[in-house]
User: Fold this.
Amino acid sequence: MTRDDKTVHQSSVTNITFSTDGSRMVTGDIKGICAVWRTHKGMTPVCQYAREGAINQIVFCSLILNASVPNTTDNTNSLFFFGGQSGSVCLADDLKNCSEVCKVPGSVKSILFYEKENSVIIITSHLLLV
Assistant:
């Protein structure tokens, strides 16, 4: 993130999700900006990602360990998935690592993290279950 102020979103925020321990918050907006915030000692922006289309689904995950995302066992690195209108689903963290994990037809209507199976469930506007 290149700005020092707390103005990250220039358009309507469509989703706000907190990590289970409350240390991180992720916000998504209608123009495709997904931002990560530290919640202790005030709201501090950590990093942001820009994608096409509105970001309307965000879910944190606690078990997935991905070799392409460094320091996944570190408490300062909160992994989460986000997606929305474009059909793109990304895995990201608060260390400026973000990658598209799948592209689905239509828009993403729901993303769920199934901890027992260490899996992500995606439901699309075309009623596709991934």
